[in-house]
Give the backbone structure.
Amino acid sequence: MAIGDSVIRKDAYEKVTGKSLYAADIKIHGMLYGGVVRSPYSASKIIKIDKNKALKIPGVVCVLTYEDIPGKNVVPLIKMDLPVLADKEARFAGEAVALVAATTIDALEQGIMNVEVSYKEIEPVIVPEEALKPKSRIVNPHFENNIISEYRIIKGKEIEDAFSECDYIVEDRYETPHQEHSYLEPQGMVAIPHPDGTMEVQGSMQCPFYVLDAVASVLSLPRAKVRIIQACVGGAFGGKEDVPSIVAAHTALLAYHTQKPMQIIYSRQEDMESTSKRHPGIIKYKSGIKKDGTLHAVKVEYILNGGAYATLSPVVMWRGNVHSVGPYRCPNVYVHTRAVCTNTVPNGAFRGFGTPQVIFAIESQMDRLAFKAGLSPLEIRLKNGLKIGDETATGHKLTESVGFIDTLKAASLEMDYEKKFEGYKSQNGRIRKGIGIGALIYGVGLGAGGKHLEKAGAFIQIHKDGSVQVAVGHTEMGQGFLTVVAQITAEALGVDYDRVHILPIDTSRVPDSGPTVASRATFISGKAILDAAAAMKERIFTQAAKLLNTKPENIEAKNGEIYLKSDNTQKISYDKVISECFANKIHLAASGWSEMSNTSYNMENGQGDAYFCYTFATNIAEVSVDMETGEVEVLKIASAYDLKPVNYQLTEGQIEGGVTQGLGYALMEGHLLKNGVIQNKDFSTYLIPTSKDVPKIKPIIIPNEYSMGPFGIKGFGETPLMAVAPAIVNAIYNATGKRITILPVTPEKILGHFTISNFQFLPR
Ligand code: MOS
């Protein structure tokens, strides 16, 4: 019926028939087109902005600069440092300097080209390790020493003492590139000024309540006069967490000044040059084991390139910090993480949120330690893997829902890991095969890094025909959220899935539910739905009990029928009961709320419960490598998770998509920067996997229940991407004996032709 079933997606029909309305499909009478004038330089002073030439172009309606902002010139994110429009200085190539509105797209393009901005270039600070040097120029006055945020984990002994007790130590430096979200639909927004002074905004977004904050702030309007509605979204992956606040602020500002409906739709190139990406990472990782393979000490120096403004870097860095040891027991830990400010595009949220970078290092190290101790990579993980009763690196004692070992066993069984790993060790010839493991732990929800936002609202109304309308505060972006919300509602009320309809996501319908991020939406909205459904079910059952001549506690409901627990032939239809409720003036609407209690976590030493629960996963990849061309073909990936799914098909879909994104991260993706300016701004130069690159993917789901989750579920949406790259890199080592420490693993690196000067993915 509901939970666990692979029901058809609520949005399937409209999407496959092309009827869905994305931001670019929205057309409103009298609507104008808006666009952005962007700085071409990594760092510059803005001397003068001359609007005159642009305003003379027929069709150009207005040009706006920071001086035209009625509210605050700041995008309301964690550090309040990103201007809506640059004033005296532009700090990255692609930063918004002015806005233009026009009656046609052609006039808009002409208008943008003819806004005359005089810049005085200054020497950009591009490389994070340069930015950290005491003599470096300060990129953004908000950040002393160019450090956006800094965290530590300090656990156990003085770390060098712990290393002196180790029998084997491995130490190396790992680097990871930018990763582009590559959502199919670029950023886009429509703003509609209403005669009563309210501003309505519809568009592509993950976090409508962030957009609400931004629009209210830039226009200086009370939030009650701002309404944000999510349009159909063509993918997000974290890339529509904070960026839509900027797009919406720009669109609303133009709509406010012209008092016309306004639309801004980014081109792909504009999107790639100006919007957030996965942070490039530098990870210096040292870990040590005892002779028998027991992990004893871990020391990590982890740097993320935040770009020119903080946006979400502090929380991305915090999550990376917490996850720096992976799913392993370790008594002695010292982690130091810093997000660094440079004159490059601000980086932000991307599926995994600061963890795929460090997971690449963790999982490479585990293999290398295993080889030193004469263990297989599977053995060292089985030996050190977290179990119930163990402590995480932050000292969180795990009491339930810890299925890591199950995922290791299931994935290795599926791949026949040990046998293949041994067999592939000594190969000759041009084509060589290899097999590798990548594993992870992942905190569900915002945890201590975003504790004030760990809440959600829901609203349910049953109409007199028995159909059910639901509003929630989180968003559908392709992951299947509307569908699982409907499944949870159906199960909670005991009605059939088909009678549940989910309303468009709208900030005026439910209270601020925080962002749709951190693999939290199904979990936390699901709990809010249970809260609303419980209130309503009590009223419905009171009526049903009367009709069945019994007490409410003696009945239950499923699939649209209400029956006696003791004898399910004694039943009555839901519709009949709903008619009875209406006849008796029963209130058939309810709002629900859920919140998680605060976690205990000390930001100084990184000790305490960082999250309320964790999801675990293991990937095992099998590859073949062409030793003459350096090409890698991924043959198969088994990807195992310890969670109970709401919908098997959607869960498997998340796994297939995430694994493919992880494959891109491992082998092909990354931005090339020249003097801080992104050079590859389209899909002919920025390569992502195509259907031809997708290996055989075997999703494995171990239905491990979590007691606090709605119907025992916990979140997992980001995890499929996160530990794929190390599985592939470890498999390449098994095939070739080459240990690659810098992603992506291009053929040049496998052949050893890679040099810093001719092929560089990291910003330099
Ligand atoms: Mo997500 S990367 O937590 O938007």
Notes: The first helix runs from residue 12 to 16. Residues 206, 238, 241, 349-351, 353, 517-518, 718 surround dioxothiomolybdenum(VI) ion (CB under 6 Å).
